[in-house]
Each structure stands twice: as C-alpha cells, then as structure tokens.
Amino acid sequence: MASDEKSAAAFRTIGEVAAATGVAPHVLRYWEERFPQLRPVTRAGNRRYYRPADVVLIERIAALLGGEGYTIRGVQQLLARERPSGRRGATPAAPPESNDPAASAPSETNSPEGELQGEAATLARVRVVRDWIAAALRED
To answer: What predicted TM-score, i.e. pTM, was given to this entire model?
Structure first.
C-alpha cells in the first residue's frame, strides 16, 4: 500500500486510497456513512485524509463484501461486535474471542444442532483471527 514517496505511517488522500485498494472514491464516501469505524481526518474543503488503520479497515470491508459474500448489514454487525465504534487505534483489534470467557469454555455439543452451531462459531472465529493476522502483517 505504501508508495515510494510516503512512509507507511503517512496519511493518504482519498485518491491514493482508491488507487491502492481498488475501491472507488464514491464508494469510500458511502462506506463512511455506513461504517462508524471508518472516520478519516477531514480538513478544509472537506478533504479526507486516511490513517493507515483506516486503509486496513477499508481493505477488510472490501474483502468481506467482495470475497466473503457479506452484506453491508452483515459487515456492520461484525465490526460492531469486534470493536466499539468510539475506540480508535493504529493496530487491529484483538480477536473478540480472546476477551470472551464463554468462548474459551468447552461448549456442550450433545445434539446435532449444537454441533452445527459449534462448527459455525469456530469457523467465524477462525475468519476473524485470519483477518486480524492479515491486517497485522500488512502494517509491517
């Protein structure tokens, strides 16, 4: 993502982010309305400057919507569960199951329905961890 002229920690304009991520500027502006976690710094003339963490979030949203088959609403719910909208940081949020005592407790899967729910929950946790690791690797 980083260009030759800027450091990895530099802020990016909407055009630079659009070119780097393949997401059109009008889509980025739309996503700002739909995802409270995506809040670039705005300056005079309503110019947007995206932090490195914003770019990681944009790449993640694009992957979830395009590759994973999530809907806008589904991504909103996923992001809301992972990190409160008021919290900002340069590093990705830790996987939510690391703070959830119920996630580490053994689940009761005596019924076929419980087994399916357990597999779906495990798959969801694996996806979150995969995305978290991918975001951390992109920051380096």
So the answer is: 0.56
